[in-house]
Amino acid sequence: MAGSISRHSRLVGWAKVLLPLAALCLLSTMFLLARAPGGTSDIPFAEIEEIAREQRIAAPRFSGVAANGADIEVSARTARPEGALFTIDAPRARMLLPGGGEVTVTSGSGTISADGRSARLTDLAHVDSTLGYQMETAGMEADLDTGRLSSLGPLEVRAPYGALTAGALTLDASDAGGESLVFSGGVRLLYRPEP
């Protein structure tokens, strides 16, 4: 009987040493496998460095109501502050006119004033109107206080009644709900009557 107690005591003594060592080996193996590199890093360090160097806002949206009652919204892919302006990439301006019409202007780049009172869309601006006009020009300038749009140069227009070219365009919405498109500067019209 004394021999079996002695054997049991030695077994328990060895177990007290071996079991914690086995547990330690299992834990260290688990942590080593968890930290093994999984190939290329998913973090684009070059992009992080570029973002850290340059301040920018992703997907900005500026909106408000003009004095004539038009709802105006300017959105872009990115905006970067530069003095009293924000430089915007891939801007889109949308104006809901008081009379129910809508004008949308898209372009490659532009600027918006820090106070949000004016925007300039450059790099071939495309203008679409629910009045049936589709226009292309070198750029558009928007006075966000008054709700007035003006072209920055000559434009080509596809209208419901034909096609025209002009040196400039001004779009105004009145408080009464009407809209006016004023073409000026050598307007040439190619009239296509309805059949």
Describe it for me?
The protein has 195 residues and is α+β, with helices and mostly antiparallel strands. It folds into two domains: 1-35; 57-191, lipopolysaccharide transport protein A fold, CATH 2.60.450. The chain has two helices and 16 strands. It has helices spanning 2-34, 45-53; strands at residues 57-58, 61-65, 71-75, 78-82, 85-89, 92-96, 102-106, 109-113, 118-129, 134-143, 148-151, 155-159, 162-166, 168-173, 179-184, 188-191. The protein has a 16-stranded antiparallel beta sheet that branches. The longest helix is centred in the N-terminal third of the chain and has 33 residues, at 2-34. The mean pLDDT is 83. InterPro entries: LipoPS_assembly_LptC-rel. This is Lipopolysaccharide export system protein LptC.
Task: Kindly identify the CATH topology of the largest domain.
Answer: lipopolysaccharide transport protein A fold
Number of strands: 16
The ordered string of helix (H) and strand (E) elements is HHEEEEEEEEEEEEEEEE
Helix content: 10-25%
Mean pLDDT across every amino acid position: 83
Estimated share of beta-strand residues: over 45%
| CATH architecture title of the largest domain | Sandwich
